[in-house]
Structure formats: structure tokens, C-alpha cells
Amino acid sequence: MIEMQDVWKTYPNGTHALQGVSVKIDRNEFVYVVGPSGAGKSTFMKLIYREETPTKGQISVGGFNIGKLKPRKIPYVRRNIGVVFQDFRLLPKLTAYENVAFAMEVIEAPKKVIKKRVPEVLELVGLRSKANREPSQLSGGEQQRIAIARAIVNNPSVIIADEPTGNLDPETSWGIMQLLDEINFRGTTIVMATHNRDIVNKMRKRVLAIENGNIVRDQVRGEYGYEF
């Protein structure tokens, strides 16, 4: 599903965020990306959904060469990649239903399809009863569930989750992780950057550890590892 071949990312200030990274992530895998702040985790994630482009090397997602995509192809590829952020990034004046529907409107999905699909996804994340509430009327955990619903509403092949539990308490975080695990079980590849040692150690998925722009550990059913 995702492959990086000798990928380098150097920013204009000379910082080498990634240095010769090569990795393959298969369809339906759940992968944690761990490491200290500034290690290159966020750059790794941004390269997958084409927020950044590599300085050198190749990245393919779902068979597309991400680094060499023509601008008109980028929206098409992004339809197959859902992104979940730490700070939710919901539109504050829209209801939960409207926030999720917006992701479908952007790709010009038919209104009939939107009306059918959005309630299904809200049901999956356990918030169908709060469809008409605005983000300010929802808890942090509920807002993140809406953000996840928005990320999956277009049936993406991949979800990129960048610290999705970073602003949540332990109990709420675990609920979010159970939801992501269910989405993965249904066939979606998930790549998640996190500092949450407890979650990584409890769920025992594949772990990629990044330090100084290099992958220093790649473990199946891995643990968080030593203190960063």
C-alpha cells in the first residue's frame, strides 16, 4: 500500500528531516510511528499524504508515485487517504453531520449518496444521536470521533493519524484506539504517529521507530521501547 525507497527530505534551512528511509507498509496493516520530538515523524506522515514532497527518493501510495504527481492528480489520490489530526480541525460553525458531509461535497459526491453514507459513518463512530451538534457542544473525544468519521466517509484505503489521542485523557484515548482498530479490521491501512507508550504497548501492532531522520527499529507486534 505504501512504499518509500531511499527517501530524503531536507528543508530550506538545511535540516535533514529524513535520511535515506526505505520501508514498505502492506494493505490492511496497522503501524505505529514513534520517536522523540523532532525525529522526523511528522515529515514521514506528511510525505505520505503529499503535504510535503521528498527531496530525493520515491514514495508510492496505492500504486501512485506521490513525489511526481501532476497537480491535477493530487486531489484524486487524496480521496484515498484520510487524515486525522491531534487538534481535530473541525469547521466550528458546521454541525457534526455537516462536517462529515463536507468531505463528500468536496469530491462532488451525489446528494443522495451523502444522505445515506454520513449517518452510517456517524453510527460507526457512535455519534449518530449528536449529528446536529456543533463542535463546541461536543467533548474532545466526541470531536475526534467526528474527525475520524470525516476521514473515513469516502472509504479511503489509508488513514494517516498524527497524534490523534494527544489532547485526550487516557479513557477517551482508549476509546479512540478501539475505534481505529475496528476501522483497520474492516480493511483500512492505518499509520499512526504517537507518543502514547501505554497504547502502543497494549495493542502490539507493528512499530517503526524514527530517530534523527532514520528508521532505527521496525518490529512486528512491537513495543514503544525505551524513553525518548
TrEMBL record:
Question: What PROSITE patterns does this protein map onto?
Answer: ABC_TRANSPORTER_1, ABC_TRANSPORTER_2
Q: Which GO terms describe its cellular component?
A: plasma membrane
- Domain ABC transporter spans what residues? 2-228
Q: Which GO terms describe its biological process?
A: cell division
Task: Tell me which positions the record assigns to the signal sequence.
Answer: none
Pfam families per record: ABC_tran (PF00005)
Q: Which domain of life is it from?
A: Bacteria
Lipid bilayer topology: Peripheral membrane protein
Arranged from A to Z, the UniProt key words for this protein are: ATP-binding, Cell cycle, Cell division, Cell membrane, Membrane, Nucleotide-binding, Transport
Give the UniProt subcellular location, in the record's own words: Cell membrane
Quote one Gene Ontology molecular function term. ATP binding
Q: What does this protein do?
A: Part of the ABC transporter FtsEX involved in cellular division.
Subunit-level organization:
Homodimer. Forms a membrane-associated complex with FtsX.
Q: What family name appears in the similarity comment? A: Belongs to the ABC transporter superfamily.
Tell me the protein's name.
Cell division ATP-binding protein FtsE
What species was this sequence derived from? Answer: Paenibacillus graminis
